[in-house]
Amino acid sequence: FSDWLKQAHENAFIVEANAMVLSTLDDGDQISTRTVLLKDISEGGFTFFTNYSSRKARAMDLNSQVTLLFPWYAMERQISISGFAEKVSESESDDYFATRPWSSQIGAWASAQSAPLSSREELEQRYAGAAEKWPEGSVVPRPPHWGGYRVTPISIEFWQGRYSRLHDRLRYERDNSASEWEITRYYP
Fold first, then answer.
1. Is residue 3 pLDDT above 90, yes or no?
2. Is 27 helix (H, G, I), strand (E, B) or coil?
3. Which end of the chain has less Cβ packing within 10 Å, N or C?
4. In terms of Cα–Cα distance, which of 18, 92, 25 is closest to 55?
């Protein structure tokens, strides 16, 4: 994964190589997809950050099984991941929040993500209020409603486009308790 991500970052035609499509399932059996940004990859999984009151967070709190998709069309590649999402520690969320640009920190306070918004002006007023409370250059605390999730994978499929649609598909799979990955090649 790390090699492909590095190659995607180096590809001039890919704008945000760390952009991934997250799919969740809510309590009404509605599937929802949206793009989020991968912020860390480790042996433990794939980490991203969001508002804990958002639609995606509420869905993950009810059903932790999710999928991630990295669609690197310019390279004729994609990586599809199935796994389970869980919140990261508060200290990990604090550490990452502190590295965000000031405007993004203020935006996290201003946005009631996924809640109805009466007008653009309302959002801009909330942003201005947060900016007044924490002027640029001051330390902005992490909102209690904002933090990270880590997706622990149970399946990772690498797809490489090929001539005549004879694509390569390799899937790595394990159950939650196994540390070893089983690798299977699939027909395209």
1. yes
2. coil
3. C
4. 25
